[in-house]
Specification:
Layout lengths: L10 E7 L5 E16 L2 E9 L1 H6 L9 E4 L2 E9 L7 E6 H5 L25 E2 L4 E4 L3 H11 L6 E4 L16 E9 L2 E12 L2 E4 L8 E16 L6 E17 L2 E6 L5 E10 L5 E9 L4 H18 L5 E12 L5 E10 L3 H5 L1 H12 L6 E12 L4 E9 L3 E2 L4 E10 L6 E8 L7 E9 L5 H7 L16 H9 L6 E6 L51 E5 L3 E3 L1 E8 L7
Parallel strand pairs: 8-9, 16-20, 21-28, 22-29
Antiparallel strand pairs: 1-2, 1-4, 2-3, 3-6, 4-5, 5-6, 5-7, 8-11, 10-11, 10-13, 10-17, 11-12, 12-15, 13-14, 14-15, 16-17, 18-19, 18-20, 21-23, 23-24, 25-26, 25-29, 26-27
Helix pairs in contact: 3-4, 4-6
Length: 568
């Protein structure tokens, strides 16, 4: 029914689900037409009534509920007011929703409704509940923090049972929009407004306002409706994937049954050596430049948190592989160790979040992530060791010589020291004279480097290398020192930069050697931990050895370079 045929005082019905998947009806009275109230045009002001409404009011999750007058569809309930009796709302006209099926793949991002300063005088889109199934309390709190900028509030719910019959989507059906599915699920609930062949319209307002979208379209069930002072909301679970959401616009979402979104498959394995607990999870995360990094990282954090079953300090050994298309290499591999006195789970996912963000936001070309494998070994013990001293097996060296540097380490609260040896090769072009080597933990930043960092240097005291290609971006990540490395590198003692005379010459950063893996790592971990296609530097000034400890602190070793055999 066109808006110009709708008059105040008209009565009709609306359809929604408040329990299970059963569609129920309630009464609707038209109060008036609000001109140009939304970005898409007019809104229809209504008041709802009936036994169902007396129990629930207009609840979050009712967005998309179709409204009929004399059997003719006028639109979808989509807006309401907080801190009211929740019986007055607004309807998005069906004519505006039908345009979603013909929209191009982009649309200017405008707010669906411009709120007043206090946020109470203007109607707001009915909030879309986000149902988080299989997430721990700590992971749920992380989700709330990360999803806050998107105005999404997750609620912890149970998982979908496997014996639920898939119901065809029809006007009034509960419907899900899923961002993560598998052993855990993260999805929104709303109501179907209209269907035509394999096409679906729902919500009556935007979900994330992505424009052209890539999300799961699922069936769903309502567990109950919870009444609150601000708003009531439906609590439910998403079900089987039946299609994809391909449009997310001001007037609602549009989907197609039988077609499915692009996804990132993830396999996550975590084990706690202290308790023997282990978890193995498989999930599908939607491909989305904004959402995929935080969804992937939070999902891994959840597996870690549920494996630990505690909050507090710990050590983590993390290995992950990312396979994709349109990347400089087929697979990006990274291994590292982390310690945290507060929450080891957050530390463990930091690099995964970083590289997925870098891949999806890179300025060179789009990337299709095809597979992500993550393995985490956890321990309640603090596996750190401090550098006590370092001694070279010879003081005078020639260019090209190899020098064994014995590094004495003191494990945290250990009674005995241990020694690890890193072999340093003097650069072939090294001039005669004194040569100072910085011996440090891979994640430790010496004071001089920190001072240089304040003057435009990177966190290793080097002038940042310009990333001219996509391969440079990947190499800068994969070649980064690991926290459990002992690093020996040339330290340039010309600190002119500290006197305002410009940056001192600094050695080139080479790629670390291959890393042997712990026996505990799964079969998908390839010995070496090296990213294929990334070459080592031809003339290294930095070498390392990998340990079972996170290395803290630093020291220096003095060598004398001579070109002839005198004094040797």
């Amino acid at each position: 029914m066109p808006v110009d045929e709708i008059k105040p005082g008209m009565h009709g019905i609306a359809k929604t689900v408040v329990s299970g998947s059963k569609i129920e009806e309630f009464g609707v009275e038209v109060l008036g037409i609000l001109k140009d109230k939304s970005p898409t045009g007019d809104l229809i002001l209504i008041r709802v009534y009936g036994d169902l409404i007396e129990k629930t009011g207009i609840a979050q999750g009712m967005s998309g509920s179709p409204v009929y007058i004399d059997g003719r569809l006028i639109g979808a309930i989509s807006y309401g007011w907080a801190l009211t009796d929740h019986k007055t709302g607004m309807v998005t006209p069906i004519a505006d929703m039908l345009k979603i099926w013909t929209l191009p793949g982009s649309e200017p991002n405008r707010p669906a409704v411009t709120p007043s300063d206090d946020g109470q005088d203007e109607a707001q889109p009915l909030a879309t509940p986000i149902m988080a199934a299989g997430f721990s309390h700590n992971a749920l709190q992380m989700l709330k923090e990360k999803l806050a900028p998107f105005r999404l509030v997750p609620y912890g719910v149970g998982s979908q049972t496997g014996d639920t019959e898939v119901q065809p989507l029809q006007p009034g059906s509960i419907v899900g929009v899923e961002l993560v599915r598998g052993d855990v699920s993260l999805g929104a609930l709303g109501t179907v407004t209209y269907t035509e062949d394999d096409k679906v319209l729902a919500f009556g307002h935007p979900f994330l306002k992505k424009g052209k979208a890539n999300m799961f379209l699922t069936n769903a069930q309502v567990i109950t409706v919870i009444n609150g002072l601000e708003n009531a909301f439906k609590v439910g679970i998403t079900g089987e994937a039946v299609g994809m959401v391909n449009q997310d616009r001001s007037a609602g979402i549009g989907g197609v049954v039988g077609r499915y979104p692009d996804i990132i498959p993830m396999r996550i394995i975590a084990r706690d050596n202290s308790t023997g607990n282990s978890r193995d999870a498989a999930v599908q995360v939607i491909q989305d430049e904004q959402l995929s990094p935080l969804l992937a990282a939070t999902t891994v954090f959840n597996v870690i948190d549920k494996t630990l079953d505690r909050t507090g300090p710990g050590t983590a050994h993390v290995y992950f592989e990312i396979a994709g298309q349109q990347m400089p290499v087929d697979t990006i591999a990274r291994e590292n160790m982390f310690y945290s006195a507060a929450n080891i789970g957050e530390q463990s996912v930091a690099e995964l979040f970083e590289i997925i963000t870098a891949l999806l936001h890179n300025q060179y070309n789009s990337v299709d992530i095809m597979d992500v494998k993550v393995h985490v070994i956890l321990d309640s013990e603090r596996k750190t060791a401090a550098v006590m001293e370092a001694r070279a097996n010879k003081k005078e060296v020639r260019p090209g010589d190899s020098v064994d540097i014995a590094v004495k380490l003191k494990p945290f609260r250990g009674e005995k020291t241990i020694t690890r040896t890193v072999t340093f090769k003097v650069p072939k072009n090294q001039p005669d004279g004194p040569l100072t080597l910085e011996v440090r933990g891979g994640g430790f930043v010496p004071l001089i480097y920190a001072l240089l960092g304040n003057q435009g240097m990177d966190n290793e005291g080097k002038k940042p290398k310009k990333q001219r290609t996509f391969a440079d971006l990947v190499e800068s990540f994969t070649s980064r020192d690991r926290n459990n490395d002992i690093v020996a590198e040339v330290l340039d003692m010309n600190y002119d930069d500290l006197n305002g005379n410009g940056p001192a010459p600094q050695p080139r950063k080479g790629k670390p050697k291959a890393v042997s893996q712990e026996e505990q790592l799964p079969k998908f971990v390839k010995p070496g931990g090296k990213t294929p296609g990334v070459k080592d530097s031809a003339n290294k000034t930095k070498f390392h050895v990998t340990t079972d400890y996170i290395i803290e602190g630093d020291t220096q070793v003095m060598l004398q370079v001579v070109s002839d055999a005198k004094g040797r």
